[in-house]
Amino acid sequence: AVVSTQSTGWLCDSDCYDQFAIVHGKNRTTAVHACGPNQSFPVQTREYWTESHVKFSPKGSYLATCHKQGIALWGGSDFSKVGRFNHPSVTYFQFSPCERYFVTYSKNPLSPEDPQNLIIWETRSCLNKRAFSLPVLNYWPYFKWSHDGQYFATITGDNLSIYSTPSMKLLDNRKIQVQNIRDFSWCPNENWIAYWQSENKNIPARVTIMSVPNCDTMSAKNLFNVSNIEIFWQNSGNYLAVKVDRTIKNKKESENVFEIFRLREKDIPVENFEIKSKVITLSWDPKGARFAVIQGDQGRTDVSYYKIGEKILPIGKTLANKKCNCIKWSPLGQYCVLAGLNNISFEGVLEFWDVGGDAPTLMNAGSHFPVTNISWDPTGRYVCSANTYGGHSVENGYKMWNFQGHLDSV
User: Fold this and answer.
1) In whole angstroms, what is the distance from residue 410 CA to residue 399 CA?
2) Bridge-based pairing state of the strands 101-106 and 118-122
C-alpha cells in the first residue's frame, strides 16, 4: 500500500512550487520540473523512465509511466516506485478523479483464454476490481467518472450504463434504457448527468438532466430540427450550456442556438440565445457566471464574452479577427488565453485577457509557433504553451508564462 504522507510530500515544499513533467529526446528522458518564480528547474530526471508517455494523477499523488508489461506508479519526494499494474501493451490509461481507481485499456486481450482488455484497478492495492471485454476503441475515455469517483458510466447501444464503487456493479443492477442516446456528461461537482437523445421520426431530440443515484429527472427540454448537440457544464454546476446545431430547410448552413439551464434556481429555468455565424466552441469561466464563444471559421474567428445575471448580456464588444480556435481559462477564473492550436495559419499567436471588468482587457500578447497545447497550473499563476511531438515533429519545446502573459522560461 502507498503511504499517503509520501505521495503528497511535494505539498510540504516551503516555496509552494508546483511540478510538471515532460518527456524528450531519443532516450525518452523524463524530467519532473518545479515551477519557480523566474524559471523552472528539474527535481528528478531519468532516462527510459517511460516507453511512451507519463501522467500525473488528478491530485498530484502519483506519476504514472507506461511500459510494455503495464503501468508503474511513482511517488514521494524521490519518486520511488509505489505500485504496478500488470497489463501488457496498454493503449490508454486513466485515473479516477478521487485517485482511488485506475483504468487501463489494451487493444489486445490479456490472453487467448481471457478476452478481457479493460481493467479497473484499486490504486493503493493494485488489485483488479473489475474487467471488461471490449472491441478495439478509437476514442478515450470509455468510462466517464463522477466528480467524486463514486460512479462511472458509459453508453452501450440505447442504454446508459452507470456503475457504482466500490462494488463495481451496475446501479440498481440494471442498465437505464434511453432510446437514441448520443452523448452524456457528468456535472463537475455534483452527481448529476446531462445527456441528449437524437430525433427519431416524429419524436424530437431531447436534453435531460438526471440526478444519481436515484435517477430522477431534474430538468428536460425537447428540441426540433437538430443535427447535433454539445454539452458544456460550468465548473461549479450552477449552469449548463447546451449548444444546438439546427438544420435549416433549403439552406446548406446550420444555425447555432444555446440553451442555458440555471441549475441552482427554482424549477431550473432555461433560456436561449442565437448566434448567427458558425460556433467553434464555448468555454465557461470556472469560477464565475461568465462564458466565452469562438465563432466564425478556422480562417477568421471572432470572440464574444457573456455574463449571466437576470439576463444573458455581452461583456463589451465582440473581439473581431482573432487568430484562435480555443479558450483556456485560469482555474481561478477571470483570466484566459486565446490560442490557435494545431493550425499554422494562426501563427502561434497567444493573447492573455482579463475579463473581470465591464469590457475584456488585453494584458499581453505573445507567440509560440507552432503551438499544440496550452495548460494552466492549478494555482492560476502560470501557463505553459507547448509544441509536442504528437502534434509536430519539429521545433518541439515549451514556454512558461505568468498569468499576465509575460514569458518566464523557454
Assistant:
1) 4
2) antiparallel
